[in-house]
Amino acid sequence: MRAAPDADLRRFLKVAPMSSPASVDPDMVEALLDRAFEPERRRRTAYKVRGDADALTALSFAAIAENGELAGSVQCWPVSLALEDGGSVPMVMLGPVAVAPELQGSGLGRALTERALAAADAAGLGGAMMLIGDPDYYGRFFGFSAERTGRWRLPGPVEAHRLLARGRDVPDAAGTLGPRVPVAA
Fold it and tell me: Do the beta carbons of residue 93 and residue 46 sit within 8 Å?
């Protein structure tokens, strides 16, 4: 039987929401993302989907190791599906989920993802979430699927089976996914 997610996180000195600049140095997050993925990651479609938006800090978390190094992070972003027939659906984009290479496979990424999803639910934002990722992993552990994303367009290439969503408010409709732009009143 697998340990509870918080048991995976207790190995770290601090698991903090990225809700203030003082909580986690953004340069540490960028360095971790470069180590976990690669510097060219910024060209990926996921970066185009979220645009220049700021991360949703209340839904984004970091695991800080006892030595002060960033061991893992998860970020969430405000995005929107602009529907072909008019209107738009606000959504939360999950990811990237990054874990230091030497800790990958430890359960840390899963625990951070569970923490972010729980925070989204608690904030009333879990009804329409999406990500680009491994359908086997995100489906099995978190309930994401490509069932309702088949008619979505993105601002770059994506393998259709990797465009995943979860939540009662996820539309099964044609539209274009992109950054959520604030609407002037």
Answer: yes
User: Judging by beta carbons within 10 Å of its beta carbon (0-12, 13-18, 19+), is residue 35 exposed, middle or buried?
Assistant: middle
- DSSP conformational letter for 145: B
Residue that has been written with the tokens 């994303």 in this structure? 149
Residue 3 pLDDT exceeds 70: no
Q: What is the largest CA-CA distance in the chain?
A: 52
165, 95 Cβ separation under 8 angstroms: no
- Residues 53-108: tens digit of each pLDDT: 888 989 999 888 877 788 899 999 999 999 999 999 999 999 899 988 888 888 89
Q: How far is CA 72 from CA 17, 24, 113, 167, 168, in A?
A: 12, 11, 10, 25, 29
Q: Omega into 26 within 30° of 0, i.e. cis?
A: no
| CB neighbour class for 15 (10 Å; exposed up to 12, middle 13-18, buried from 19) | buried
Cβ-count burial of 27 within 10 angstroms (0-12 exposed, 13-18 middle, 19+ buried)? Answer: exposed
CA distance 83 to 87: 6
What is the reported pLDDT for 41? 74
